[in-house]
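Practice problem 4.
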């Protein structure tokens, strides 16, 4: 196997490489990453000198560079993580999402097709996507693989578009594709613009914990290590042309997540839980905020015998501890762009404090 990973310096890609590069010594890995604000080579420190790993800085929006590097590496498997992924940023800068997620995926599909020619034997193009393509749920129901697409944000619309292209490249050109649509991931190396790392760092620093609206929105939380194992299973054992939903079976309201996180922070820093909770601040809601996401993961469980192994409370505690202990990594991401985002996005005063 020769595995080409795109976006390997991002959160899920880095966790995937950190898990499989040491585990699969006979497999050659190439990581293509544009190193935008959310990509951090420090996340891959433990494997950067491994003989079966190499890195190339490539932006998938550059079609020539993408075609050339794919052709040079001659992958058997492509795992496509590279994407702009933060919903709030997509509301402010939608064009970046169209370029990275739509044009980037198009260029990668074309590069794979050119490199593989008609010889698709033993080849896989695995596209990593999100449950947000299905839109939002009310109080009940679950997203299955046959739920119609109804994306609501520029981010999810761009991911939906990329899913459609990947599917069409199989239907039209016979490209051997697989797609996974996952729920909200959390764990080490996540850029602190997303709920759990942002709240963890703010709670540890004694800063406000900005909950959008009333905190009643619901997400289904999936530990990133479980997600990486699901991707590997689908890539190696899943059926070509199929889509698999990957969920954590851990639905929580945002307020429940923040309360659980406050308990972990209190435990780690020897403070009272009430003291940490007093940092919670309710701020104006996200425009078009999807109410609830929840995944029906019965297909991947039944067909590939995968289910999440991490419980939410244990995984969350482990994650908060990781952010507490990995100060070098945390400092390395809190540079100019991060601070600019935090100032521009959270500059507004809190509505009320609890
Ligand atoms: O469902 C999978 C998706 O989950 C991924 O495809 C996306 O890349 C990922 O960003 C995530 O989308 P969300 O919008 O659900 O994630 P985020 O961490 O931004 O927000 C989670 C929830 O927490 C959401 O209801 C908004 C809320 N929130 C978020 C932030 C950053 C707050 O209340 N306050 C905040 O400061």
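Answer key:
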């Amino acid at each position: 196997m020769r595995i080409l990973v795109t976006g390997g310096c991002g959160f899920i890609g880095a966790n995937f490489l950190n898990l499989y590069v040491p585990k699969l010594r006979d497999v050659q890995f190439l990581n293509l990453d544009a190193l935008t604000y959310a990509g951090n080579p420090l996340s891959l420190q433990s494997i950067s000198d491994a003989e079966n790993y190499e890195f190339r800085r490539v932006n998938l929006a550059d079609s020539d560079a993408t075609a050339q590097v794919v052709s040079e590496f001659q992958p058997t498997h492509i795992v496509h993580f590279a994407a702009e992924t933060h919903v709030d940023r997509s509301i402010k800068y939608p064009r970046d999402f169209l370029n990275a997620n739509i044009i980037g995926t198009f260029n990668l599909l074309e590069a794979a097709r050119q490199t593989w020619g008609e010889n698709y034997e033993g080849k896989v193009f695995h596209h990593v996507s999100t449950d947000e393509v299905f839109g939002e749920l009310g109080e009940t129901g679950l997203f299955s693989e046959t739920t119609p697409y109804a994306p609501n944000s520029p981010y999810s619309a761009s991911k939906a578009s990329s899913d459609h292209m990947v599917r069409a490249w199989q239907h039209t050109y016979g490209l051997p594709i697989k797609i996974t649509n996952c729920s909200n991931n959390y764990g080490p190396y996540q850029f602190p613009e997303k709920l759990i790392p942002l709240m963890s760092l703010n709670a540890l620093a004694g800063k406000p914990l900005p909950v959008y609206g009333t905190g009643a929105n619901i997400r289904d939380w999936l530990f990133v290590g479980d997600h990486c194992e699901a991707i590997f299973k689908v890539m190696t054992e899943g059926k070509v042309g199929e889509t698999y939903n990957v969920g954590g079976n851990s639905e929580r309201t945002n307020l429940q997540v923040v309360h659980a996180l406050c308990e972990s922070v209190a435990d780690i820093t020897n403070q009272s839980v009430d003291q940490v909770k007093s940092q919670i601040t309710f701020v104006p809601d996200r425009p078009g905020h999807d109410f609830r996401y929840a995944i029906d993961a019965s297909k991947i469980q039944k067909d590939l015998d995968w289910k999440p192994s991490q419980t939410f409370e244990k995984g969350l505690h482990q994650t908060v501890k990781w952010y507490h202990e990995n100060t070098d990594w945390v400092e390395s991401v809190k540079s100019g762009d991060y601070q600019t985002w935090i100032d521009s996005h959270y500059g507004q005063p809190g509505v009320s404090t609890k």
